[in-house]
Amino acid sequence: MKSKNWNRFTVTIACLFLLIAVIAMCTSLNAQAPDRFVGTVTVINGNTITVKTDSGDSKQVEIPASAVMKRLAPGQRDLSAAETIQLTDLATGDRVLVKLDPNATGAIPQALQLVAMKKTDIAQKQQQERDEWQRSGTGGLVKSVDPTAGVVMVTTGAGPTAKVVTVHITKTTVLRRYAPNSVRFADAQPGPLDAVHVGDQFQVLGQKSADGSEITAAQVVSGSFRNISGVVVSVDTSASTLTVKDLVTKKNVTVHITPDAEMRRLPDMMAKMIAARLKGGASAAGGATTDARPQGAGTGTSAPSGYGAGAGQGAGAWSGQARRSGGGNLAQVLDRAPTVKLSDLQKGEAVMLVSTEGATDVTAIKLLAGVEPLLESPEASRDLLSNWSMGSGGAESAAQ
Fold first, then answer.
1. Domains, the chain, with CATH or none
2. Which in 62, 162, 205, 226 has the greatest CB count within 10 A?
3. Angle at CA 315, nearest 5°, toward 310 and 318?
4. pLDDT tens per residue, range 128-161
């Protein structure tokens, strides 16, 4: 009997210590819980706002009268120079950084501090960035890289009008590299030049030579991505994925479609015109100088306001618009193509896309449908999406 009681006592003590350990662990985890988050305001209801965080969560937070509220201009870092605002100055679509009050006891978390970037300010900054990259930007695929000499040879454009640009990297050049599984500039990290490889996407902003054959880089963003041309096997809108049979590897690839993905469809006439251009024939698509406009913050599109063609625009209007563009480029033509949704894609149709790297599971950056004429000349169209896929992300970074 003594032995049984002792065993029970031992088990009880062991359970007690286990319970204490679990409580201590939970307390530690709670103590480590993040006290701040960044996101976009989606709802304003009285003194309570709802924020969609960058991680995809939806958080409610109460803004008491005691909360410190500041307005920061895109690109500004010093809070001491920030303007003090009121809750009434906040609007849906604004970007906010919210620091929570650890001493608040209400059911809804309270903000101790809120720093906002106005949606209108971000849009203006994006346009300025687009304009700057349009004037001074170049992008394409890395042909060769010499880290010692600080020289990168980049192939821009596509088809017979492709050319090579020499990029000079200096000590003051800001070098960034996209994260392996992300297409957002906000996730790009500083990276040395020796991390750049042949075949990488390479976008550069800097001082161009008179003929555009050389550029001294002020900013660079690079990354390794995958080009896929194939046929849609299936579409799963509930999972936001589609399965594509890669025409090169003959294997199925699962493609994840996120809100950041840009999806467009070429009108049939425009697809034929681009195919003719890439084969070296006459085309109204204009030259093939690469468009290096930065990608918008969280929008997944680099087309400035007014560039959209509208889903109902016919091929005739497209032809006329392309002819009027004169010195326009193929990347701009692609940017003008009507947008589509995942549900618009059909089994058996051909698509071209640029994605994150991966053998059988990738995330789409940009996807182009209506490309059957382009796939008739795979060699000519091989680099088309490569030059269209990335923007500098400078405007997006301003919104972080």
1. 36-117 (2.40.50.320), 137-223 (2.40.50.140), 225-391 (2.40.50.320)
2. 205
3. 65
4. 877 777 777 888 889 999 999 999 999 887 666 6
Q: How far is CA 206 from CA 39, 75, 167, 215, in A?
A: 31, 19, 9, 6
In the chain, DSSP assigns E strands to 36-45, 48-53, 58-62, 68-71, 83-84, 95-100, 111-117, 137-146, 151-156, 163-168, 174-177, 189-190, 201-208, 214-223, 225-236, 241-246, 252-256, 262-265, 350-356, 361-369
| pLDDT digits 0-9 by tens, 21-34 | 433 444 443 444 45
Query: What single letter denotes the amino acid at residue 309?
Result: A
Residues with Cβ < 8 Å from 355, sequence gap 6 or more?
225, 226, 228, 255, 362, 363, 364, 365
Q: Token pair 């490309």 is at which residue?
A: 371
What distance, in Å, lies between the first and last C-alpha atoms of the chain? 68
19: left (phi over 0), alpha (psi -120 to 50) or beta: alpha
Per-residue pLDDT of 282-298, as tens digits, reads: 433 333 333 333 333 33
pTM of the full structure = 0.56
Q: Rounded CA gap, 64 and 109, in Å? A: 10
Helix (H, G, I), strand (E, B) or coil at 318: helix
For 304-332, the pLDDT digits (tens) are 222 222 323 333 333 344 333 333 456 66
For 214, the 3-state DSSP assignment is strand
The rounded distance, in Å, linking the Cα atoms of 7 and 273 is 85
Query: Which amino acid makes up residue 108?
Result: I
Q: Closest Cα partner for 303 from 87, 54, 134, 115?
A: 134
Are 297 and 125 spatial neighbours (Cβ–Cβ below 8 Å)?
no
| Cα→Cα distances 312→309, 317, 339, Å | 8, 10, 11
At 321, which amino acid appears? Q
